[in-house]
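U., I forgot to send this yesterday:
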Amino acid sequence: MPKVWRTIIFFFIVIAMQFVAAVWLRFTPLRELDFDLQLILSQLLAFAVSSVLYVVVTRQKFSEVIPLKWVGVVNVVLIVFITLAVIPASWLVSYVSGLFFVNHIEGVVISIAGFGFLRAFLAIAITPSICEELVARGVFMHDFKKKRPWVQIVASGLLFGLLHLNFQQFFYTFFLGCVFGWLVYKTGSVISAMLAHLVVNGLAVVQLMFIDVYEVAEATATLEEVPQIAIVAVFSGITLAGLVFGVGLLVLFNDWNNNRNRKLSQPVRRVEWL
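Result:
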């Protein structure tokens, strides 16, 4: 079976597993669990278990389908700052898409925040950054490995966005998915995407937990009186500044990994002792 069709079938299996997880958690004794624990279990079932089953059924090596090699301290630092630089752009895309589609995830995040910072961080940041990336930048990118790099990156980003089953989330997750895909392409490790994903979701948890909800409500009410074009203009300015900074970091990241990969590909010279 061609890998593209295999990927499409796997995509729908993951979608089905999300529904199976939802039903399983709703109509079994597990429904008594706190909502954050239910979310963690559903992520594990829909994404982590699906990825492992994919590797087993296709009889491939896990390390080849989902490479998890260490990327180095320099790359970790660069990935964190690159992600922070592109986050404003994702906010802008999210805001614009929110003008046309309902944001269903906001209520979920707020409800989980009631369980405290550590549990919210585990459910919203750590678990999705690992489980979702096993599928998106692991299986999906691997199946498009023989295609051109931009096809790998865009295809994994597109499928990543569709996996969220939410039009409002699709556009900014597609954008972020392409960024994550490029990081993985340059480093050869899914850990790059996991780290970037963790920064995005982790920042959302930190904002939610340490910003006064009442102040946010007042600010939101005030924003409703401001023309939308003005809000978009401000977002655009912040986004542009972030992207300018991010492009510089991306160039540095690209050069660093090109040199790193070149050194790793060089044969090791044997030293002969006299």
